Amino acid sequence: MTESPMPFSLGYGTNGLTDHPLPVALELLAEQGYGAVALTLGHPHLDPFAADLDAQLQALRVTLSELNLRVVIETGTRFLLDPRHKHRPALVDEEAASRVDFLHRAVDIAAALEAECVSFFSGVLPEGTSPDTGWQRLTERVAGVVEYAAGTGVLLAVEPEPGMLVETVSDALHLRAELGDPDNLRITVDIGHCVVVEPDGVRGALLQAGPLLANVQLDDMRPHAHEHLPFGEGTVDLPLALATLAELDYRGVAAVELPRHSYDAPGLAARSIAALRDAWTESGTSRESERWLQESTTAIAADPSALTTIFAQAGRRLGRMPLRPDADPTGALFGTTSDSARGRLLGRLGELLPPEELALALSALYDGGDSAERRGVLRGLAALATRSPKLPDVVVNAGLRLTSEALRTNESGLVAAAVGPFAAAHLDQHSWRHAVLKLVFMGVSLSAVTDLQERADDELARMAGDFAAERTAAGRPVTDDVTLLLGSSHSTTSQGEASHAHL
Questions:
Q1: Is residue 399's pLDDT more than 80?
Q2: Span 179-224, pLDDT tens digits
Q3: Which of 256, 286, 357, 403 lies 20 to 30 A from 431 at CA?
């Protein structure tokens, strides 16, 4: 089957190419196969205050046309307006005239280059400023920029940023609503930011932006750390992100955003586009999974009794390919395509079925299922726990029974699936410790365990120490995972138990 082309254009941000002159950077991107560029205004590439700006723009427009590169304008230069304070002044500061003037200039530049949009952010609230005051300043100033841009036909796209007043897509939609939903004010989504601040993750944020999505930034990131990383170094599900963009029929620019990696720009640009192409190929499975989820959810909503048949047929429909074949060629540790889809389906049913019906369904699917279906149920418990910090007692009780049964087996796939977010939130400390040690005994990586460092305690370290001593006495090697447990003691047993008693 021929792979479908991406409906959007892959780009790369010039803030990740600051050691290259702009013409050289653009040629490099075109050579690598990029079809777009995200142009950050300011040092060192395009000074919006330059005396010969018009001449530079004329030449740049010719270059972009010759290289067949689409362009979006980014305004995230750190010290352009204030050489001593990053991103200041911001739209939420008391004095922001220079920021507003800069955005007007960005609009003019976008018009001259026929750019797709101008992307901008709200800024971090100054110390001592209330959110109400910040929102008042922001709406008044953005209203003026929106009016200015409307006169040139340029689209604006507000970018939610961790730690800023507009932090999530919901905040961006709120800003737009406060301004009367102007048609030329849209949304930028950075998929890395989504794992840090968006309650429904990358897919949820993209779907929430929906038809208002005008600009996408691509990078990897880890939860709770706003640090742009190359693909593969964080937790972003890149195939799912690309599949969601395709589902939305997004046809704009999706540009790699790595502002701290100019030292390796040529190599990283090459690796990034290779990773994106691989992820697009993999996203074919994700796109099929999303179609299956939508169809299945609709069918079950109409007839809950259809769940058993739909659940059983997932393997034939979606296949059993390992999600991470490089690290887990059998799918036992991180699961298979059908494991994941079954789990996500059950996660959705948490909002569709009453708690009593959901608990009965979980038990029936597990008790009557084969090993693959049972892994799907356990991953469904993980999805439910991830979506809701407070599950109904009847669901928790059913989940604890199924988790305990899985942990009594000698199937590595079931044990690995049973120590995810549900176990981290609801399994008592004694049972949780034994589950962790069972993985060690079975030779299954502890990377399957959710919140290992948070729940590990002195008693677990003691148990791991006894195991290590037995191995050493028998002349057998001690694995890295055992060593990890020996070094993970950071609380007493009672503290570990107390810290999870409320979950």
A1: yes
A2: 999 999 999 999 999 999 999 899 999 999 999 999 999 999 999 8
A3: 357
**Distance in angstroms (rounded) separating the CA atoms of residues 139 and 98:** 16
Name residue 436's beta-bridge partners.
none
Three-state secondary structure call for residue 122: coil
- Sequence-ordered list of residues with C-beta below 8 angstroms from that of 359, at least 6 positions apart, any chain: 392, 394, 395, 397, 398
Instruction: Report d(CA 414, CA 403) in Å as an integer.
Output: 9
Helix boundaries (H) for 248-370: 265-302, 307-318, 337-349, 355-367
Closest to 416 measured CA to CA, from 403, 426, 428 = 403
- CA distance linking residue 38 with residue 29, whole number of Å: 11
- Encoded tokens for 260: 């701290």
Does residue 486 contact residue 464 with C-beta atoms inside 8 Å?
A: yes
Q: Which residues contact 267 (CB under 8 A, 6 or more apart)?
A: none
What pLDDT is attached to residue 501? Answer: 29
Pull the structure tokens for residue 245: 């963009």
Q: Are strands 220-222 and 225-229 parallel, antiparallel or unpaired?
A: antiparallel
Q: Who wins on pLDDT, 123 or 443?
A: 123
Which of 175, 188, 263 lies closest to 218 in space, CA to CA?
188
pLDDT over 70 percentage in the chain: 96
| Dihedral of alpha carbons 176, 117, 193, 4, sign | positive
Between residues 61 and 327, the one the model is more confident about:
61
Alpha helices in 392-477 (DSSP H): 393-407, 412-418, 421-426, 429-442, 452-455, 458-473
Average pLDDT over every residue of 315-338:
79
Q: Is the pLDDT of residue 254 over 60?
A: yes
